[in-house]
Specification:
heterodimer, A: alpha/beta, six-stranded mixed beta sheet, four-stranded antiparallel beta sheet, 9 helices, about 40% helix, globular, B: alpha/beta, Transcription Regulator spoIIAA, 2 domains, 13 helices, about 70% helix
Chain lengths: ~250, ~375
């Protein structure tokens, strides 16, 4: 297993912008191996923008993003593909391919990136579905299962190539409290048993308290990190914005 | 025997075989058992078990430094293969953290591998499914025709209830924006047909009758038919895709729960727009088809006035109005079929594409069937 407390993601001076308008300015933070790291903040503060920069979908206006010691921003071609294979992403609404069954959704990356025979691909896909509790739903199409199941299937697909880092975009958003708690348990189980580093974007306080080792809170006004630390540290923060966020969420 | 797993940087996992004891096959896996490592060892391990069919298999896992889901997959596969051949399996030395991951999988759950593709059904079953599907589609078509007729009548009785702003917007998109393509294609078809007809007719000195041919064929058949087919490809698919996307995004459900019937709200506006623009586009198609024919006769040294005179003598107002009447019906068919397939779209991204495809295909089929019915009707009416 990888040693804990060594950084696997390092963001240095990241500035994200849409055209002339900057969304995030001069952001720096690190995520350690095996950590569950949560990016927190209100609507429009740039959480998803930051996530899309971390997974290489957007090119930053300035700054560097190191994944496992390699700069994602200045890596191109085959090396970038190899680097991107170290990460798995679960999108907010799953982004499963609607014309494929869950099993086929999971087999697709294995088919494209490995030389494994079909039986092996099916076994690995089924095992990943079993990890998220969906082994019995392998033949279902995404439209035939619930939103929570779709998210779990998307996690299974993101894990199928054995990534080192799993990015989750709003894993508990839109789920009922019980399903949301099940999702939190699943995330903790994955982080524990697979030793995966998990980076999640969320604004659901119960989930953050349940899963997060470290949290950063983004602020729309300052376009940067307004607080960082463990969920408990943030809950007792001196910053009025952070306190207000936690108080409002707790009251809602 | 030692087999190494290839990796981008270094060998990540190795498999060592010890078969000194005849009744027992001993395998040692060492290194990093991740996707690359497991993939490289998979084939070798499976072939080895298949070949030896051991009564006992001892898998030494003490030196596995890292093991993810795929690595566990390899361990499970080795166990499964051994058990399948009637042997016994023993795993030794797997670190606690990996053993916990292994414990999450029940071998019996993974024993029956699901096929990634559904089994193809037999001919009688496929025929039955096709018949039921066709029957349901026909029933839906009849029901939709009835619903649309009621909605159209209600709209005509209360014209102020029609969303005229939407009607004109759709008419602009489906009609005015389609004019260049309708004009170009009609002109070219008129020109090509006149050219093809002029070659044999010239041998008999009857090339002037090309004008009669073009006049009759364009006004009675080609003008309305070409316009309808272009509109089916352009607008029926657009209607199906737009309404299909609304269905997928639950916008149709939102309309229904607001108390708005989607048929008057979405379908009547589109049918009315198509009703207005199809005859207008047909008129333009007729005009440009005739212009295309005139180019050929002008190139054969006939003056334009002769061509116009010949066309006038060959066609009557009935031919022109008959073509326009057809185009009215074609317009209704195009809009209604597009909307019907949009409203019947399933869910998911492919559903919208399927709806658009079905709208174009069934739209064109219905237009041609309708044209045939009109031909018979006009024959008996003497038009």
């Amino acid at each position: 297993m990888e040693t804990a407390a060594t950084p696997i993601i390092e963001v240095q001076g990241l500035t994200a912008a849409y055209g002339e308008e900057s969304i995030l300015e001069n952001l720096s933070f690190t995520v350690n191996h095996g950590e569950v790291f949560v990016i927190l903040g209100g609507s429009g503060c740039g959480k998803s923008t930051l996530l899309k920069h971390l997974i290489g979908l957007y090119q930053p206006a300035n700054g560097q993003i190191f994944i496992d010691g390699q700069d994602l921003v200045s890596t191109y071609g085959e090396s970038r593909q190899t680097l991107l294979r170290k990460i798995g992403v679960m999108y907010q609404h799953g982004a499963l391919f609607g014309s494929m069954t869950l099993l086929e959704n999971l087999c697709l990356p294995l088919e494209e990136f490995t030389e494994l025979p079909e039986t092996a691909r099916n076994l690995i896909a089924t095992m990943n579905l079993s990890l998220v509790g969906l082994a019995d739903y392998h033949h279902y199409y995404p439209a035939e299962i619930s939103g929570g199941m779709r998210k779990r299937a998307a996690i299974a697909r993101a894990m199928v190539l054995g990534p080192q880092i799993l990015f989750l975009d709003e894993p508990s958003a839109g789920l009922d409290p019980i399903t949301s708690a099940e999702m939190d348990e699943l995330i903790l189980r994955l982080a524990g048993s697979l030793g995966m580093t998990i980076v999640a974007v969320s604004h659901e306080l119960p989930s953050i308290h349940a899963i997060a080792d470290q949290v950063i809170m983004l602020d729309k006004q300052t376009k940067g990190i307004t607080a960082r630390g463990t969920p408990q540290q943030l809950a007792h923060s001196d910053s009025p914005q952070v306190r207000q966020f936690f108080a409002r969420q707790a009251g809602s | 025997m030692t087999r190494s797993a290839d990796h981008a940087t270094a060998p990540t996992a190795t498999l060592t075989v010890d078969d000194r004891r005849p009744e027992q096959l001993s395998l040692t896996i060492a290194g990093r058992l991740d996707l690359a490592g497991a993939t490289a060892l998979w084939q070798t391990a499976c072939e080895l078990i298949e070949l030896r069919r051991p009564r006992q298999l001892l898998l030494m896992a003490t030196d596995i430094d890292y093991c993810d889901g795929t690595g566990i997959g390899l361990l499970v596969e080795i166990e499964r293969q051994t058990l399948r051949h009637g042997g016994s399996f023993k795993l030794k030395g797997l670190r606690d953290e990996f053993a916990k991951l292994r414990e999450q999988f029940e071998l019996s759950e993974l024993a029956e591998l699901p096929s990634s593709r559904p089994e193809p059904c037999c001919l009688p079953e496929a025929t039955g499914i096709a018949v039921v599907k066709t029957w349901r589609a026909l029933r839906a078509l009849v029901a939709f025709t009835g619903e649309l007729s009621v909605a159209m009548l209600a709209a005509l009785r209360r014209p102020q209830s029609i969303r005229w702003r939407d009607v004109w917007l759709i008419a602009e998109k489906a009609g005015a924006d389609a004019l260049p393509i309708v004009a170009l294609l009609s002109f070219l078809v008129g020109l090509i047909m006149a050219f093809q007809a002029a070659i044999p007719m010239r041998q008999f000195g009857t090339e002037i009758y090309v004008a009669n041919l073009i006049g009759l064929a364009t006004l009675r058949e080609l003008g309305p038919l070409m316009t309808a087919i272009i509109l089916a490809g352009r607008s029926a698919s657009a209607f199906a895709a737009e309404i299909g996307t609304m269905k997928v995004n639950e916008e149709i459900d939102a309309l229904t729960t607001m108390g708005l019937n989607p048929v008057p709200f979405l379908v009547v506006t589109r049918v009315l727009a198509a009703l207005f623009v199809t005859p207008l586009l047909t008129l333009f198609a007729d005009l440009f088809g005739l212009a295309g024919g005139s180019v050929v006769l002008l190139s054969l040294n006939y003056p334009l006035v002769t061509y116009i005179h010949q066309v006038q003598s060959a066609v009557s107002m009935g031919d022109c109005l008959g073509g326009l009447a057809k185009s009215l019906v074609f317009g209704i068919i195009i809009a209604a079929i597009g909307c019907l397939h949009g409203l019947r779209a399933g869910s998911g991204a492919s559903a919208v594409g399927d709806a658009a495809t079905r709208a174009v295909v069934s739209g064109i089929v219905l237009i041609v069937i309708g044209d045939g019915i009109f031909s018979v009707l006009y024959y008996y009416l003497g038009i």
